[in-house]
Design goal:
The chain contains 20 helices and 10 strands. With about 475 residues, it is an alpha/beta fold. The strands form 2 sheets. It has a 7-stranded mixed sheet, with helices on both faces. It has a 3-stranded antiparallel sheet with strand order 8-9-10. The longest helix is centred in the C-terminal third of the chain and has 37 residues, at about 315-350. The structure holds nicotinamide 8-bromo-adenine dinucleotide phosphate (NBP). Nicotinamide 8-bromo-adenine dinucleotide phosphate binds near residues 12 and 127.
Length: about 475
Amino acid sequence: SSAHIGVTGLAVMGRNLARNFARNGYTVALHNRTVSRTRDLVRDFSDEGSFIAAETAEEFVAALERPRRLVIMVKAGAPTDAVIDEFAALLEPGDVIIDGGNAHYADTRRREKAMRERGLHFVGTGISGGEEGALHGPSIMPGGSAEAYDSLRPMLESIAAKAPDGTPCTTHVGPDGAGHFVKMVHNGIEYADMQLIGEAYHLLRDVAGYSPDRIAETFREWNTGRLDSYLIEITAEVLSHSDGATGQPFVDVVADEAEQKGTGRWTVQTALDLGVPVSGIAEAVFARSLSGHADLRSASSHLAGPAAAALSPDDAERFAGQVEQALYASKITSYAQGWNMISSGSQEYGWEIDPGAVAAIWRAGCIIRAVFLDRIRAAFAGRPDLPTLLADEHFSKEIGDAQGDWRTVVATAVQHGIPVPGFSAALASYDSLRSARLPASLTQGQRDFFGAHTYRRTDRDGSFHTLWGGDRSELSAD
Ligand code: NBP
């Protein structure tokens, strides 16, 4: 029994994670339901480090040093429950199960409780960065007991991505479902970012009249500034790629129906339950869903749109600069919504998540990695009680400087009939938040009128109801 850690589930993620541990000097026990995957890994990569191949669950558990630490990397949902049950029966109090799959945080809360009652540690761990990240350094978001995190910390720190300042991209996010919760929000933010970038592309293409190559160049230029990020970088790569078969721009031969695996949808469903507005993420999820409705789209293709000519080259150049401003301002707004959601979840479940630490571990390894994340980290580090990112003086200054161009871009998009649900939802969120008065007072009046739902007043405490069907006098409803 000499393996430092074990990995069960050796499809692309598990295999690469196991290799990452081995490359960092750890002896790794290997297991997979289908034994051939285990054998293939040892055959192909045994020169990278020390592996102990196990063909049965019993052999696998016997190969681990105590307290045993085993990572489960199987399909989320029922397969994860089946594998947890199989191994929990073979483990002893104090052993640590790490679920690195994309579990829903509510499942993780249930599983952690069940394992805790058996004396086992359960660490629900969000892992971002795809297969490359798993091999070269992912962003790792573990949730569970502090004791379990302490026993994993050196290993997780050694396999994690390193931020530009050298800090490993992992931290103890919080108890039970906290890690999978922040991973879910990460994916929601990723959806919103991709939607915003897509809208910027659409505007540069159809309003500025730029070619995909020219747009790729524009993104490359933006990637040297405050938008410097993995997603902007790969956007330029995708846009400058030509299709081998036709020689057309790749982006023109791909069907425009975006798919989704479900973490964006989970984010929005959870946000609705928590009552936290994440309109940017919601619009991104709905935009993907709309794109896939070929039936609705073809039934609507006859609808009238505006007649607006593409801009002149000089105007196009100015407009591209304005789109950069709109993209950046929308991004700040959408990240603010994501962090508001982390704060709501943390309060709801008593997780005490450190918002700056989350930004810190997303600086490298994960899909939304960006220079911008270090600014978010710094904002929370400078002011741990910061109620929302928009309250930070640097971000509010930047967004204030950008708002004129942001409005121009949204207005121009509307005039040209280009859908910008992400840009406009972000702007509406910004304007709603800064408004001194919202029409919600009228909503309250309507609710009181038809349902006697009562309202509060601006000038006195208490709840009130107006006798709408009678003499319209006001009663105290307390
Ligand atoms: P998959 O999600 O495709 O799962 C395949 C693995 O699950 C195989 O090892 C398979 O064993 C095993 N498995 C299944 Br399916 N049912 C099982 C069962 N009833 N009992 C035991 N094992 C079972 O693999 P993946 O793409 O490597 O992802 C692994 C996890 O990591 C998932 O939860 C995924 O959501 C998450 N994740 C993926 C990415 C990514 O970029 N792909 C990123 C971050 C997280 P078999 O070989 O015997 O069929």
